[in-house]
Sequence to fold (286 residues):
Amino acid sequence: MSTEDTADDRDEREDREDRRGIQSIEVGGRLLKAAAARGQPLPLKVLSQAAGMSPAKAHPYLVSFCKLGLMRQDPATGYYGLGPLAMEMGLIGIQQIDPVRLATARLDALAEEIGHTAAIAVWGSQGATIVRTAASPAAVHVTMRHGTVVSLSDTASGPLFAAYRPEPEIKAMLAEARRKGPADLARVGRHDRPQEVPPWAAFARTLEEIRTRAMHRSVGGIVEGVSALAVPVFDSDAQMALALTAIGPSGAFDAAWDGAVARGLTAAATELMREIGGRFPVAAAG
Fold:
C-alpha cells in the first residue's frame, strides 16, 4: 500500500468521523447535561447514575472536565458541579441571545395560529413600543405600525410593562400622561373618545392584578371595536424582555383569560422563555 493510499484512507476515516461526531465527547457530554439539570454539586455515584453510566466510566471524564474547567470537584465534599468555564460559556451564550430576533421568527406562525395580528412590543424611552408585527390571516383585521408608542394605561401591552417596571418610573410617567391628556394615546386609528388617565391608586390595583395573572387585555380601550391581549416574556434575569400581543376586531376576538388567543400567546411566550433561559420574577411565579 502506498503512502498516498494511506493518506487517502486516513482522510476518508476522518471525514466519516466528522460526519458522525466523536462518540467519547457525546458520552462525556451526558455528565455535563446531568450536572446542569440537577443544578447543584453531586457525588460521583449520583452524577454517574443520572448520566446513565457507571462511576468507573464517569470518573476519567470528570477528571478531564475538571482540568478544562467544565467541572469542579469540591475539595471538602468531593462532590462534582459545573466549573468556571461552564459558567462563563453559559453567560456568553445568554449575552448572544436576542429575544426580539427569536420572537420575530415565530411571529407569522403565531398570527396564523391565533387568527389575529400579532405584535412584539419592547420598553423604550417613551414607554411600550411596537417593534415587529405580523398581519392577521383574516380578511378583516387590525394593523399596527412599527414604532408606535402605546398608551401606558389603556392598552394591553402598556400596563403589562408597567406592572414589571420600577414604581417610581411608572408613577412619573403616569403623571406626565395626565399632564399631556388625550394626546398621549396609541396611534392605532381615529380615537372615538378622550381617554382619562387613572389615578395612581386605581392603576396600582390594576398592576397588581396583572402580576397575579401574568397577562393583560384591552377591550375597546383606545378604539371602539378593537381588542388586544398581551403576555410577558422574561429573560434570564427575570426582567421583562418583550410583550407578545394579539390585536383584532372585538366581534371576532376571544379576549377571555383562558381563551384561544390567551392560550396561543402563553404557549409562544413559554417556548420563547425556554429558549432564552427566561424565568418569572419571584412575585409573579405564584
